[in-house]
Amino acid sequence: MADFMNPEEYVVLVDEKDREVGIEKKSRVHSSDTPLHRAFSLFLFSASKKLLIQQRSAGKKAWPLVWSNSCCGHPLPGESYEDSVIRRTRFELGIEPVAVKKVSDYRYCFSKDGIMENEICPIYMAYCSGSVTPNPDEIHAVQWIGWKQWLEETLCRPHLYSPWCVEETLILASGQYALRDSG
């Protein structure tokens, strides 16, 4: 887990089979030649099945001010994927995710503006109720959107969204995740 005397976060470096091969400071891992590491992506839904999307903060090293799925993050050394989903959702959105469920494995590598994302990144879904309180260091803006509208958006204007989010949306759309009937 994180060393509370040192607030620096670490990411878990992995091989293609998601086996740990080391750790690295989060601040140093994202570069033009980012090593493969663990991450997760969360799609957070309201009780009415509206999806929460976020615009990444201007201070983000990778894809600043780009719209993306609800929450992304990195498990800390010794932390499970599910625990990291809960921790980061609380930290970024100020809300408790409920019924956190892994829905698909995912692996990607994208580069933009000299920064590479290179991650083993399982896709999670969860629900929430109550108000979202975005952390301004992480999130510039949020929006609730119906699933059908979201599918249209990502199909018609994929360049407006993070590339991992667009691919993950297609993965979710191809599965049986009880989202097809929501507005």
Overview of the structural elements:
With 183 residues, the protein is of the alpha+beta class. The chain has a single domain (10-174), classed as Nucleoside Triphosphate Pyrophosphohydrolase, CATH 3.90.79. The protein contains 4 helices and 12 strands. It has helices spanning 26-29, 81-93, 147-156, 163-174, and strands spanning 10-14, 20-25, 37-38, 40-45, 50-56, 67-68, 71-73, 98-104, 107-112, 115-120, 123-127, 139-146. Strands 4, 5, 6, 7, 8, 11 and 12 form a 7-stranded mixed β-sheet that branches. Strands 3-10-9 form a 3-stranded mixed β-sheet, with no helix packed on it. It has a two-stranded antiparallel sheet with strand order 1-2. A hairpin with a 5-residue loop joins strand 1 (10-14) and strand 2. It is globular, with a radius of gyration of 16 Å. Mean pLDDT is 91; it is low at 1-6.
Keywords:
alpha+beta; 183 residues; 12 strands; disordered N terminus; 21% helix; 7-stranded mixed β-sheet; Nucleoside Triphosphate Pyrophosphohydrolase
Task: Indicate the topology.
Layout: E1 10-14, E2 20-25, H1 26-29, E3 37-38, E4 40-45, E5 50-56, E6 67-68, E7 71-73, H2 81-93, E8 98-104, E9 107-112, E10 115-120, E11 123-127, E12 139-146, H3 147-156, H4 163-174
Parallel strand pairs: 3-10, 4-11
Antiparallel strand pairs: 1-2, 4-5, 4-7, 5-6, 5-12, 8-11, 9-10
